[in-house]
Amino acid sequence: MTDGATGPVGLKVTTADEPAADVSATDAEKSVLGRSPGQLAWMRLKRDRTAWASGSALVFFALVAIAAPLIERLYGKGPLDRFSDKLDGNGNPLGYLGGVSSEHWLGVQPRLGRDILIQIVYGMRTSLLVALSAALLTIVLGVVIGILAGYLGGKVDAVLSWLTDLTLAFPFYIFCFAFVPIAVAQRYGPTDQEASWFRPLLLIVVFVLFNWTYSARLVRGQVLTLREREFVEAARASGAGLGHVLFRQLLPNLWAPILVTFSLNVPALITAEAALSFLGIGILEPTPDLGRLIADSVNYVRDDPAFTLTGGITLFVLVLAFNLFGDSMRDALDPKSDR
Amino acid sequence: MLRFFIKKLLLAATTLITVSVITFGLFFAAPNNPAELMCGNRKTCTPAQQESIARRMGLDKPVAQQYADFMAGIVKGRTFGEGDAMRECPAPCLGYSFRNDEPVTDIIGRTLPVTLSIVFGAAVVWLLIGVSVGMVSALRKGTIFDRGAVGFSLAGASMPILLFGPLLLIIFVYETGWLAYPSYTPITENPAKWAAAMLLPWLALGFINSALYARLSRAQMVETLSEDFVRTARAKGMTKFRVYGKHALRAAITPIVTIAGLDLGTYLGGTVVTETIFGFTGLGKASLNAAINLDMPLVMATVLLAALFIVAANVIVDVLYSFIDPRVRLA
Lengths: 339, 331
Description:
The complex is a heterodimer of chains A (339) and B (331).
Chain A: H1 3-30, H2 37-47, H3 49-66, H4 68-75, H5 116-152, H6 154-169, H7 172-187, H8 198-226, H9 230-237, H10 242-250, H11 255-278, H12 290-298, H13 305-333
Chain B: H1 2-29, H2 34-38, H3 47-57, H4 63-76, E1 78-80, E2 87-89, E3 96-97, E4 102-103, H5 104-139, H6 144-158, H7 161-175, H8 191-225, H9 228-235, H10 240-268, H11 272-278, H12 283-292, H13 296-324, H14 327-330
Antiparallel strand pairs in B: 1-2, 3-4
Helix pairs in contact in B: 1-13, 5-6, 5-8, 5-10, 5-13, 6-8, 7-8, 7-11, 8-10, 10-13, 11-12, 12-13
């Protein structure tokens, strides 16, 4: 085989490896300075183009979600404003691609006549709020359970592991169907108006209750190997309490898997939240939400396919950005990857 | 071996009973009034109506008694109410849906085949596409095909069915008119019509999962190919086809079968989103409707059934695995 034939592939690999090799060489020279694993991971992340692209997308989405009221003012339309003059007699939007115009950048919703762009902006706000808070609480619960089960072992471990298996046996979506209406009926009478914060809160609770298992198992496994190490023994020998050993000695060694799990859990939760709202169990009218927007758009998929695709593509891009960033983060934090 | 098997079964039974107790508690022992929830129109429900519902469903008895009745009903069948309002619920009785005025088992018997058809067809699609794409890209690691496959699996794994399902409808039904909007026909009635209706859900669910399976099987195969036994087999002159197609494939595919088994169990409990998008009334959709109508006996039965599928899939996978890999039995 000529050099040229292996060229493209070999070339690609070496260009990816070369700067890494350079850096590790300079690392070795400068190792007097010393670099924490965190700094190393950050350096790897900064060199990763996918991480840059997906990271910027995430920052953009976050800014849009945070600045939603500002965007509303600049754009001049609220999420609940109706523009019936943009619809024809049948309630379908006038013009092409679901009524896209200089006034309504992504068109208007059929029948309701709401502006789609501002719906998506506010919908993303709901999605991100629910998914991020649920992911955060999930990881906290998972880490606490995992670290306790792994470190204490014995009966505690047996009970907590059984609890994990039990939770995994619950069918998530179907159990939500059972749980959410009952919880709502519990708090509100048949004629009461639900408060707008109640459903998002309920969703967060359900997500946390059923999602902690993965991080708990992961952390437990890590702790099982860590607890036999000398530094733990040293801490115990010098009279450290349980809390100190768990959260000051063990926890700092677990940051890498925790961060990766967290960042890959967020897109999964965004999808789940959208699915539940799509099914009418999650976020309700009038709170703007991506899943609810897609549920509405599916009714008009024949006459206004652009509307359906707009909502779906937004969800896709959001999830994709999180997944790509999570993958890059895993590569960066993995001490074995020498990229 | 037998001991391992019995231990697994006992554990599964304990889990299922706990799930049933928790679900039961949620419905019938929660501080809200189940009779009021199940009353036709909650806004106009009179206390007298509530009382009659409570009596018919046995809600006036102590909760422990209700649970015992429910469990006994699964084995022996039971009746609800008396006189004209008496309803027969033959074994295995999972409750009686007063909303639909029929035993829950009848509704499940009608909707479960729909879900089974969707899930098994989709599983064939995702295993075929996923595993073959993954294997080929592992064998051609670093080529354009491999990079394309990695890109496909990254994008596909993020693709929400909320986008992909409607997209298929737009392309195949509304724009080109190649397919009619799906409507379920039982396979026993007309297999061709059944398959035609299932085509879109198979594609939708199958494609989305195939991305994950492609990723998984590529990783497994890459790892297996770097093992010594593969090099030894090649070095002693075995053909590529035999080494990769038989020896390496068998080693790489075991964990994939495990995951496929668990996924199947989860999906059998209901593929609600797929069913909703394509307008099928499967187990998941029936459960969703029941939840929205507060038809509690039906919701509870579907939760239990779905949990049964998950637990059963776990046991089956564990037992199968112990046949393949004896180390598991000793652990």
